[in-house]
Amino acid sequence: MNAPLVDVRNVSHRFGQASVLHNVSLRIEAGSYTVLLGPSGSGKTTLLSILGGFVVPTEGNVFIRGEDCTAVPPAKRPTTTVFQDYALFPHMSIGKNVAFGLRMRGVDGATRAQRARSALKLVGLADAFDRRPHQLSGGQRQRVALARALVVEPAVLLLDEPLGALDLKLRRQMQDELKALQKSVGTAFVHVTHDQEEAMALADHCVVMNDGRIEDEGAPERVYSQPATRFSATFMGESTVISGTVAGSRSGIITLRTPVGDISLPGEATPGSTFSLAVRPEHLLLGEPAGSLGLGEAVVGDVVFQGSFRRVLATSKRDPGIAFLARLATGSPVASGDTVAVSCRPEHIIRLKD
User: Fold this and answer.
1) Which residue ranges form the domains of the chain, and what is each CATH number?
2) Rounded Cα–Cα distance for residues 322 and 299 (Å)
3) Using one digit for the tens of pLDDT, what is the confidence trace for 84-135?
4) pTM tops 0.90, yes or no
5) Rounded to an integer, what distance in angstroms lies between the CA atom of residue 50 and that of residue 77?
6) Distance from C-alpha of 80 to C-alpha of 195, rounded to nearest angstrom
7) Ranges for the ABC transporter domain (predicted)?
8) Contact, 74 vs 49, CB < 8 A?
Protein backbone atom coordinates (compact mmCIF):
# COMPACT_ATOMS: atom_id res chain seq x y z
CA MET A 1 0.00 0.00 0.00
CA ASN A 2 1.34 3.43 -0.96
CA ALA A 3 1.91 5.90 1.87
CA PRO A 4 -0.74 8.65 2.08
CA LEU A 5 0.16 12.28 1.45
CA VAL A 6 -0.95 13.17 5.00
CA ASP A 7 -0.93 10.65 7.82
CA VAL A 8 -2.38 11.79 11.16
CA ARG A 9 -1.52 9.22 13.82
CA ASN A 10 -3.27 9.03 17.21
CA VAL A 11 -3.51 12.78 17.67
CA SER A 12 -5.03 14.18 20.86
CA HIS A 13 -5.06 17.78 22.01
CA ARG A 14 -5.99 19.71 25.12
CA PHE A 15 -6.41 23.42 25.73
CA GLY A 16 -5.68 23.61 29.46
CA GLN A 17 -7.95 21.03 31.08
CA ALA A 18 -10.31 20.88 28.10
CA SER A 19 -9.74 17.92 25.78
CA VAL A 20 -10.73 18.84 22.20
CA LEU A 21 -9.31 15.93 20.18
CA HIS A 22 -9.28 12.28 21.26
CA ASN A 23 -6.89 9.86 19.57
CA VAL A 24 -7.68 10.96 16.01
CA SER A 25 -6.10 9.08 13.10
CA LEU A 26 -6.67 10.15 9.50
CA ARG A 27 -5.12 9.42 6.09
CA ILE A 28 -5.40 11.94 3.26
CA GLU A 29 -4.45 10.89 -0.25
CA ALA A 30 -2.72 13.03 -2.86
CA GLY A 31 -5.15 14.79 -5.20
CA SER A 32 -8.14 14.29 -2.90
CA TYR A 33 -10.72 16.82 -1.71
CA THR A 34 -11.26 16.07 1.98
CA VAL A 35 -13.97 17.87 3.94
CA LEU A 36 -13.91 17.92 7.76
CA LEU A 37 -17.57 18.24 8.74
CA GLY A 38 -19.09 18.67 12.17
CA PRO A 39 -20.89 21.00 14.58
CA SER A 40 -19.21 23.78 16.54
CA GLY A 41 -16.87 22.27 19.12
CA SER A 42 -16.39 18.99 17.25
CA GLY A 43 -12.63 19.56 16.85
CA LYS A 44 -12.50 20.07 13.08
CA THR A 45 -10.85 23.52 13.19
CA THR A 46 -8.33 22.34 15.80
CA LEU A 47 -7.42 19.40 13.56
CA LEU A 48 -6.99 21.78 10.59
CA SER A 49 -4.77 24.02 12.73
CA ILE A 50 -2.63 21.01 13.65
CA LEU A 51 -2.30 20.11 9.96
CA GLY A 52 -1.23 23.69 9.20
CA GLY A 53 1.29 23.86 12.05
CA PHE A 54 -0.51 26.57 14.00
CA VAL A 55 -1.11 24.14 16.89
CA VAL A 56 1.24 21.39 18.10
CA PRO A 57 -0.81 18.42 19.34
CA THR A 58 -0.55 17.30 22.93
CA GLU A 59 -0.10 13.71 21.74
CA GLY A 60 0.42 11.98 18.41
CA ASN A 61 2.14 12.81 15.15
CA VAL A 62 1.44 14.35 11.74
CA PHE A 63 3.36 13.07 8.71
CA ILE A 64 3.29 14.91 5.39
CA ARG A 65 5.00 13.31 2.40
CA GLY A 66 6.40 10.74 4.82
CA GLU A 67 8.15 13.34 7.01
CA ASP A 68 7.24 14.02 10.62
CA CYS A 69 5.90 17.60 10.57
CA THR A 70 4.31 17.55 14.01
CA ALA A 71 6.40 20.43 15.39
CA VAL A 72 7.34 22.08 12.07
CA PRO A 73 6.12 25.73 11.94
CA PRO A 74 3.60 26.79 9.26
CA ALA A 75 6.14 28.58 7.03
CA LYS A 76 8.35 25.50 6.79
CA ARG A 77 5.79 22.80 6.01
CA PRO A 78 4.30 22.04 2.56
CA THR A 79 0.89 23.47 3.43
CA THR A 80 -0.89 26.81 3.03
CA THR A 81 -4.11 27.97 4.66
CA VAL A 82 -7.04 30.03 3.39
CA PHE A 83 -8.87 31.63 6.32
CA GLN A 84 -12.53 32.58 6.51
CA ASP A 85 -11.74 36.32 6.62
CA TYR A 86 -9.21 35.92 3.75
CA ALA A 87 -6.56 37.95 5.72
CA LEU A 88 -5.56 40.13 2.73
CA PHE A 89 -3.24 43.09 3.31
CA PRO A 90 -5.37 46.22 2.59
CA HIS A 91 -2.35 48.46 1.82
CA MET A 92 -0.99 46.10 -0.85
CA SER A 93 -2.14 45.60 -4.42
CA ILE A 94 -3.76 42.30 -5.33
CA GLY A 95 -0.60 41.28 -7.18
CA LYS A 96 1.59 41.94 -4.14
CA ASN A 97 -0.88 40.11 -1.88
CA VAL A 98 -0.70 37.03 -4.07
CA ALA A 99 3.10 37.23 -4.35
CA PHE A 100 3.67 37.75 -0.62
CA GLY A 101 4.44 34.10 0.15
CA LEU A 102 6.96 33.99 -2.70
CA ARG A 103 8.61 37.12 -1.35
CA MET A 104 9.01 35.45 2.04
CA ARG A 105 10.70 32.56 0.26
CA GLY A 106 13.24 34.85 -1.38
CA VAL A 107 11.88 34.61 -4.93
CA ASP A 108 13.03 37.52 -7.14
CA GLY A 109 10.61 40.30 -8.11
CA ALA A 110 10.17 39.43 -11.79
CA THR A 111 9.42 35.78 -11.04
CA ARG A 112 7.05 36.78 -8.24
CA ALA A 113 5.05 39.01 -10.57
CA GLN A 114 4.91 36.38 -13.29
CA ARG A 115 3.73 33.63 -10.97
CA ALA A 116 1.23 35.96 -9.25
CA ARG A 117 -0.30 36.85 -12.63
CA SER A 118 -0.53 33.16 -13.52
CA ALA A 119 -2.23 32.37 -10.20
CA LEU A 120 -4.73 35.21 -10.65
CA LYS A 121 -5.50 33.98 -14.15
CA LEU A 122 -6.14 30.53 -12.71
CA VAL A 123 -8.87 31.93 -10.43
CA GLY A 124 -10.36 34.19 -13.11
CA LEU A 125 -8.92 37.51 -11.90
CA ALA A 126 -6.22 38.21 -14.48
CA ASP A 127 -7.22 41.90 -14.67
CA ALA A 128 -7.10 42.53 -10.88
CA PHE A 129 -3.30 42.56 -10.47
CA ASP A 130 -3.03 46.33 -9.75
CA ARG A 131 -6.25 46.74 -7.80
CA ARG A 132 -6.66 46.84 -3.99
CA PRO A 133 -8.71 44.44 -1.83
CA HIS A 134 -11.38 47.05 -1.02
CA GLN A 135 -12.14 47.36 -4.74
CA LEU A 136 -13.19 43.70 -4.98
CA SER A 137 -16.35 41.83 -3.98
CA GLY A 138 -16.39 39.16 -1.30
CA GLY A 139 -16.24 36.38 -3.88
CA GLN A 140 -13.33 38.06 -5.66
CA ARG A 141 -11.39 38.48 -2.41
CA GLN A 142 -11.92 34.80 -1.73
CA ARG A 143 -10.42 34.00 -5.12
CA VAL A 144 -7.43 36.22 -4.33
CA ALA A 145 -6.89 34.31 -1.07
CA LEU A 146 -6.96 31.07 -3.07
CA ALA A 147 -4.46 32.43 -5.60
CA ARG A 148 -2.13 33.54 -2.80
CA ALA A 149 -2.28 30.07 -1.23
CA LEU A 150 -1.77 28.19 -4.50
CA VAL A 151 1.05 30.35 -5.90
CA VAL A 152 3.57 28.73 -3.55
CA GLU A 153 2.57 25.28 -4.88
CA PRO A 154 1.71 23.57 -1.56
CA ALA A 155 1.29 19.83 -1.24
CA VAL A 156 -1.85 20.45 0.82
CA LEU A 157 -4.21 23.46 0.72
CA LEU A 158 -6.12 23.97 3.97
CA LEU A 159 -9.41 25.90 3.88
CA ASP A 160 -10.99 27.12 7.12
CA GLU A 161 -14.70 27.68 6.33
CA PRO A 162 -13.73 29.79 3.29
CA LEU A 163 -17.32 30.24 2.08
CA GLY A 164 -18.89 31.13 5.42
CA ALA A 165 -19.02 34.89 4.75
CA LEU A 166 -20.70 34.59 1.34
CA ASP A 167 -24.41 34.70 0.50
CA LEU A 168 -26.18 31.50 -0.60
CA LYS A 169 -26.02 32.10 -4.37
CA LEU A 170 -22.35 33.09 -4.32
CA ARG A 171 -21.50 30.25 -1.94
CA ARG A 172 -22.93 27.69 -4.37
CA GLN A 173 -21.13 29.32 -7.27
CA MET A 174 -17.85 29.20 -5.35
CA GLN A 175 -18.42 25.53 -4.47
CA ASP A 176 -18.46 24.72 -8.17
CA GLU A 177 -15.38 26.85 -8.77
CA LEU A 178 -13.46 25.33 -5.85
CA LYS A 179 -14.11 21.79 -7.04
CA ALA A 180 -13.10 22.67 -10.60
CA LEU A 181 -9.97 24.44 -9.34
CA GLN A 182 -8.94 21.48 -7.21
CA LYS A 183 -9.30 19.11 -10.15
CA SER A 184 -7.32 21.52 -12.35
CA VAL A 185 -4.31 21.98 -10.04
CA GLY A 186 -4.35 18.48 -8.50
CA THR A 187 -3.38 19.74 -5.03
CA ALA A 188 -4.96 17.95 -2.06
CA PHE A 189 -7.57 20.22 -0.44
CA VAL A 190 -8.67 19.88 3.18
CA HIS A 191 -11.77 21.99 3.82
CA VAL A 192 -13.53 22.66 7.15
CA THR A 193 -17.27 23.34 7.21
CA HIS A 194 -20.39 22.73 9.28
CA ASP A 195 -22.58 22.83 6.15
CA GLN A 196 -23.68 19.32 5.08
CA GLU A 197 -24.71 20.39 1.56
CA GLU A 198 -21.34 22.07 1.06
CA ALA A 199 -19.56 18.91 2.16
CA MET A 200 -21.51 16.72 -0.25
CA ALA A 201 -21.01 19.17 -3.13
CA LEU A 202 -17.22 19.32 -2.69
CA ALA A 203 -15.82 16.21 -1.06
CA ASP A 204 -14.59 12.96 -2.47
CA HIS A 205 -13.51 12.12 1.12
CA CYS A 206 -15.94 13.21 3.85
CA VAL A 207 -14.87 13.11 7.52
CA VAL A 208 -17.70 13.55 10.06
CA MET A 209 -16.47 14.74 13.46
CA ASN A 210 -18.19 14.92 16.82
CA ASP A 211 -16.87 15.68 20.30
CA GLY A 212 -13.23 15.50 19.19
CA ARG A 213 -13.55 12.15 17.43
CA ILE A 214 -14.10 10.91 13.89
CA GLU A 215 -17.60 9.41 13.77
CA ASP A 216 -17.56 8.37 10.13
CA GLU A 217 -15.49 8.85 6.99
CA GLY A 218 -15.56 7.82 3.36
CA ALA A 219 -17.08 8.86 0.06
CA PRO A 220 -19.97 11.28 0.68
CA GLU A 221 -22.40 8.98 -1.13
CA ARG A 222 -21.58 6.15 1.30
CA VAL A 223 -21.61 8.37 4.39
CA TYR A 224 -25.05 9.68 3.40
CA SER A 225 -26.66 6.43 2.24
CA GLN A 226 -25.07 4.12 4.82
CA PRO A 227 -23.98 6.23 7.82
CA ALA A 228 -21.93 4.36 10.40
CA THR A 229 -23.50 5.90 13.51
CA ARG A 230 -26.67 7.60 14.72
CA PHE A 231 -24.84 10.93 14.92
CA SER A 232 -23.61 10.63 11.35
CA ALA A 233 -27.14 9.83 10.13
CA THR A 234 -28.63 12.88 11.82
CA PHE A 235 -25.84 15.34 11.04
CA MET A 236 -25.03 14.34 7.45
CA GLY A 237 -28.52 15.17 6.21
CA GLU A 238 -31.84 14.61 7.96
CA SER A 239 -33.34 11.28 9.03
CA THR A 240 -36.24 9.73 10.87
CA VAL A 241 -34.66 7.54 13.56
CA ILE A 242 -36.52 4.69 15.28
CA SER A 243 -34.96 2.64 18.10
CA GLY A 244 -35.93 -0.91 18.94
CA THR A 245 -35.12 -4.21 20.62
CA VAL A 246 -34.54 -7.49 18.80
CA ALA A 247 -37.49 -9.74 19.62
CA GLY A 248 -36.27 -12.64 17.52
CA SER A 249 -33.84 -13.71 14.82
CA ARG A 250 -34.49 -16.70 12.58
CA SER A 251 -33.41 -17.85 9.11
CA GLY A 252 -31.65 -14.58 8.40
CA ILE A 253 -34.62 -12.40 9.40
CA ILE A 254 -34.59 -10.06 12.43
CA THR A 255 -37.82 -9.01 14.13
CA LEU A 256 -37.31 -5.65 15.80
CA ARG A 257 -39.84 -4.44 18.39
CA THR A 258 -40.21 -0.66 18.04
CA PRO A 259 -42.60 2.06 19.26
CA VAL A 260 -44.30 2.02 15.82
CA GLY A 261 -44.76 -1.76 15.76
CA ASP A 262 -42.71 -4.83 14.87
CA ILE A 263 -40.36 -4.47 11.90
CA SER A 264 -38.83 -7.48 10.13
CA LEU A 265 -35.56 -7.04 8.27
CA PRO A 266 -32.90 -9.27 6.72
CA GLY A 267 -29.86 -9.81 8.95
CA GLU A 268 -28.56 -11.43 12.09
CA ALA A 269 -28.79 -10.12 15.66
CA THR A 270 -28.90 -11.42 19.21
CA PRO A 271 -32.41 -11.39 20.77
CA GLY A 272 -32.59 -8.67 23.41
CA SER A 273 -29.98 -6.47 21.75
CA THR A 274 -30.90 -2.94 20.76
CA PHE A 275 -30.15 -0.79 17.75
CA SER A 276 -31.66 2.03 15.73
CA LEU A 277 -33.06 2.35 12.23
CA ALA A 278 -32.94 5.47 10.05
CA VAL A 279 -34.91 6.49 6.97
CA ARG A 280 -33.90 9.44 4.80
CA PRO A 281 -36.75 11.90 4.02
CA GLU A 282 -36.68 11.19 0.28
CA HIS A 283 -37.34 7.49 1.05
CA LEU A 284 -40.22 7.98 3.48
CA LEU A 285 -43.58 7.27 1.84
CA LEU A 286 -47.04 8.53 2.77
CA GLY A 287 -49.29 5.58 2.04
CA GLU A 288 -48.46 1.88 1.85
CA PRO A 289 -47.68 0.91 -1.76
CA ALA A 290 -47.06 -2.74 -2.63
CA GLY A 291 -43.75 -4.02 -1.30
CA SER A 292 -43.37 -1.28 1.30
CA LEU A 293 -42.84 -1.72 5.05
CA GLY A 294 -45.56 -0.11 7.19
CA LEU A 295 -44.49 2.22 9.99
CA GLY A 296 -47.97 3.02 11.34
CA GLU A 297 -50.11 6.12 11.05
CA ALA A 298 -49.07 9.71 11.65
CA VAL A 299 -50.69 13.13 11.90
CA VAL A 300 -49.28 15.70 9.50
CA GLY A 301 -48.01 18.88 11.17
CA ASP A 302 -45.88 21.23 9.08
CA VAL A 303 -45.98 21.20 5.27
CA VAL A 304 -43.33 23.55 3.91
CA PHE A 305 -42.85 24.42 0.24
CA GLN A 306 -39.12 24.40 -0.58
CA GLY A 307 -39.06 24.90 -4.32
CA SER A 308 -38.43 21.50 -5.89
CA PHE A 309 -40.12 19.58 -3.05
CA ARG A 310 -42.42 19.86 -0.03
CA ARG A 311 -40.97 19.13 3.40
CA VAL A 312 -43.54 17.28 5.49
CA LEU A 313 -43.30 16.65 9.24
CA ALA A 314 -45.75 14.15 10.75
CA THR A 315 -46.07 12.79 14.30
CA SER A 316 -46.54 9.08 14.94
CA LYS A 317 -49.94 8.22 16.43
CA ARG A 318 -48.40 5.31 18.36
CA ASP A 319 -45.52 7.33 19.80
CA PRO A 320 -45.74 11.16 19.71
CA GLY A 321 -41.99 11.25 20.37
CA ILE A 322 -41.30 10.01 16.83
CA ALA A 323 -41.42 12.64 14.09
CA PHE A 324 -41.51 11.36 10.51
CA LEU A 325 -39.77 13.63 8.04
CA ALA A 326 -40.69 13.23 4.36
CA ARG A 327 -39.61 15.01 1.19
CA LEU A 328 -42.46 14.85 -1.33
CA ALA A 329 -43.13 16.12 -4.83
CA THR A 330 -44.58 19.63 -4.87
CA GLY A 331 -47.94 18.37 -6.18
CA SER A 332 -48.45 15.80 -3.40
CA PRO A 333 -51.99 16.11 -1.93
CA VAL A 334 -51.13 16.41 1.75
CA ALA A 335 -52.11 19.09 4.24
CA SER A 336 -51.58 19.92 7.89
CA GLY A 337 -53.95 17.88 10.09
CA ASP A 338 -54.21 14.91 7.72
CA THR A 339 -53.83 11.40 9.15
CA VAL A 340 -51.65 9.34 6.83
CA ALA A 341 -50.11 5.87 6.68
CA VAL A 342 -46.30 5.99 6.73
CA SER A 343 -44.02 3.43 5.11
CA CYS A 344 -40.74 2.88 3.29
CA ARG A 345 -39.18 0.18 1.17
CA PRO A 346 -37.11 -2.34 3.19
CA GLU A 347 -33.95 -1.67 1.16
CA HIS A 348 -34.04 1.99 2.21
CA ILE A 349 -33.87 1.29 5.95
CA ILE A 350 -30.44 2.07 7.43
CA ARG A 351 -29.29 0.07 10.44
CA LEU A 352 -27.24 2.21 12.82
CA LYS A 353 -24.74 1.78 15.60
CA ASP A 354 -25.57 4.06 18.55
Assistant:
1) 6-235 (3.40.50.300), 240-352 (no CATH)
2) 11
3) 777 889 999 999 999 998 998 889 999 999 999 999 998 889 999 999 999 9
4) no
5) 12
6) 22
7) 6-236
8) no
